[in-house]
Amino acid sequence: MKKSLLALAAMGAFAGAAQAQSSVSVYGILDMGYAATTNETQATSAAAVTKASARNTGNGDGGLSTSRLGFRGVEDLGKGLSAQFVLEYDLINVGTGGTGADSNVANTTTNGAATGTGFGARYAYVGLSDKAMGTLRLGRQEQAVFTVLAGTGLAGAGNNMAGSIYSSGVNTAVNSAAVRPVTVFLNQAITYISPNISGVQVTGQYSSNAYEASTTTRSAGVRESGGSISYTGINKLQLAYGIALQDWNIAAVTGVAPDASTAQTLTVAASTGKTVQQAIAANYDFGVVRPYVNYTSIKTTASGVVTRDQGAYEIGLRAPVTKVINVWASSFMGTKKTAANSATLAATTTGNADLRGWQLGSTYDFSKRTTAYAIYGTQNVKGKDAAANTKIESVGYTVGVRHSF
């Protein structure tokens, strides 16, 4: 009897240990609120100003954070080795009845279809980690240079509203004056993350995607390589630098059948060019306030012509007013130009322009999972070419609640 009890106890302990070695969890963020943005554009100094406004409530994109749903798992393989995976989707516009014109126009009337985008790809990778050797990840993941900017240099922590250099133009209300200088996610990536040694951590990243023009000719395709280095060796100081080098040389591909038994075809336009993205960022926690600073640059050349050459710096402050209230303020300025001194200005492509923006924000933590927020920001891209003194300006605010689970 005693032996049976001992055997059962041993089996139970073994089962508990085995269960502890592997775990899968579901997590996410749901961020909803009221948002309003006004965009103004002007083709020349003499032209009329075109003004457009967008307002919405309960938008799933989120003002403070992008709403998302994710699954992650970790398995202990023993001897300091572990395996992990992350599969995450954004929940943009869930329940709003659609995107684009539908979200802004059709939804002004009752729309019960709830055909919003939802489940947009974010993370999809598997990895192996060794305590002594570091981590290797395969799949869609954050671009290394993006982690430098968003992880170290933003007082507003990468929120989705206008007023920060991070602003993308795809948020709770359309922001025309988009100036984001880095790519957020990198597809088909191989990423190595070193162990943290005396506060220093290094990341290396590579991605390649080639298109086949014919059975005998293969294009060079698209390649990106990059990495980052961060330092946290001095107490309360965070410092990081990242770079991404992308080049593409794609031959025109049409009528390629991946599977002869189907009618599938692949059509890719010919293109040649390269892009260089860089970011350096730092912050220091003084207790009563944490100052942030970043400098970013992006230069794109397509078919030998510079289509975007942008550099900007941003400074910001974040401070805890109480244990549950945080406030921040930030401001950025910079320039965007082309080698051809083009008179045509677009928010993210050609033209010579000054970049300006600022943002104010506050959060109130009801708990570790639930936060109320208010954000106001404005930014503009103002052309400097004499032939077309173009202006693109976006002003927006949002109030909402974010819940993490």
What is the CATH class designation?
Answer: Mainly Beta
CATH superfamily, called what?
Porin
Cα-based radius of gyration, to the nearest Å: 24 Å
Q: What's the number of structural domains?
A: 1
Low-pLDDT regions: 1-20, 95-116, 341-345
Biggest sheet, spatial arrangement of strands: 1-3-4-5-6-7-8-9-10-11-12-13-14-15-16-17
* Helix and strand sequence: HEEEEHEEHEEEEEEEEEEE
CATH topology heading: Porin
Overall spatial form: globular
Q: Describe the largest sheet.
A: 16 strands, antiparallel, barrel
Account of the 3D structure:
With 405 residues, this protein is mainly β. The protein has a single domain, classed as Beta Barrel (Porin), CATH 2.40.160. Helix content is 8%, strand content 52%. It has three helices and 17 strands. A 16-stranded antiparallel beta barrel has the order 1-3-4-5-6-7-8-9-10-11-12-13-14-15-16-17. The longest helix has 20 residues, at 2-21. The two termini are 46 Å apart. Residues 1-20, 95-116 and 341-345 have low confidence and may be disordered.
Which key features would you list for this structure?
mainly beta; 3 helices; 8% helix; Porin
Furnish the topology, listing elements before pairings.
Blueprint lengths: L1 H20 E21 L7 E8 L10 E11 L2 E10 L10 H4 L15 E11 L3 E9 L1 H9 L32 E9 L6 E10 L11 E11 L5 E14 L20 E14 L5 E13 L2 E16 L4 E13 L15 E13 L4 E14 L7 E14 L1
Antiparallel strand pairs: 1-2, 1-3, 1-17, 3-4, 4-5, 5-6, 6-7, 7-8, 8-9, 9-10, 10-11, 11-12, 12-13, 13-14, 14-15, 15-16, 16-17
